[in-house]
Amino acid sequence: MGMFRKIKKSKNFSFPIKFSAVWPIAFATLFLGACQAVNTTAGGAVGIDRTQYMAVSSRQVEQSSAKSYQKTLQEENSKGNLNADAAQVKRIRAIASRIIPQTGVFRPDAPRWAWEVNVISSKTVNAWCMAGGKIAFYTGLLDTLKLSDDEVAAVMGHEIAHALREHSRERASEQMITQLGVAIGGAVLGFGQLGNDALSKAVDVTLSLPHSRQHETEADRIGVELSARAGFNPEAAVTLWEKMGRLSESRPPELLSTHPAPESRIEALRRDATLVYPFYQAANKAR
Ligand SMILES: [Zn+2]
Q1: Is the pLDDT of residue 192 over 50?
Q2: How far apart are CA 106 and CA 96, in angstroms?
Q3: Which residues have beta carbons under 5 A from ligand 1 (an ion)?
Q4: Distance, CA 217 to ligand 1 centroid (Å)?
């Protein structure tokens, strides 16, 4: 009230901010109110600690991922490529059944997710885990790189780590924020359209878009700890990425296009493998 009187008394009063500038600020304030600051995981021994800004819900991202996963499985099934190699299916599911219980170290809810693990017969050198624990391994990755069980666990740990950290939800949220800026400028998109675009981005980031280097580093670090705790030699992460690097000289693996190498990945993995090695030893003593 005092402030108001003061302004009213001023002789040369003019409104300090143009109306056109007020609306974006008002929108942004509203929007940031809806934007949630979270840390999706506990740090683990590797100590991941980074605040993430989420503008879409886990549930929305999980639902659209589950839909996209079913669609992928149906397509591969119609071509006769879904779980056609019984021995590999058994092997990959056995490795997953050891890693999944360890996810509780980073997120208590994760061991109870509706996990699915499927193997696609294809020359594609790839593997991924969608939001909510929907995993696919391609036989091309297993055969071309002749992966050991420890190396499979290294890939799986890495992919699962992306899902635990909800990296695709984070990317969808970034998309939402960017597009909201565009919408404020042009007032062209409705909120519904914004949400749909953001959710399709969440799927794209698993299947076709490169993860950021920061996300890669987090997935590397959490992945190494997950595989060690499951009783797989964490040093296999080093040989895995070395093999991947050698292959990329002749035929770039699909997996590398979605998982670009952070600088000095190999050295960092070697350091982390040493750090988590005691978990590997303890797990094998217990087995
Ligand atoms: Zn990755």
Answers
A1: yes
A2: 16
A3: 211, 216, 219, 259
A4: 8
Question: What's the whole-model pTM score?
Answer: 0.85
Average the pLDDT over 279-285 and give the result. 96
CB-CB contact of 59 with 131 (8 Å) = no
- The rounded mean pLDDT for the chain is 86
Q: How many angstroms from the chain centroid is the CA of residue 283?
A: 26
DSSP letter at 82? B
| Proportion of the chain above pLDDT 90, given as a percent | 66
* Model confidence at 116: pLDDT above 80: yes
Residue 99: strand, helix, or coil: helix
Catalytic annotation present for 159: yes
Catalytic residue among 62, 159, 218, 254: 159
Task: Give the distance (Å) from ligand 1 centre to CA of residue 185.
Answer: 34
- What is the domain partition of the chain in residue ranges? 47-286
Phi, psi (5° rounding) for residue 180?
A: -65, -40
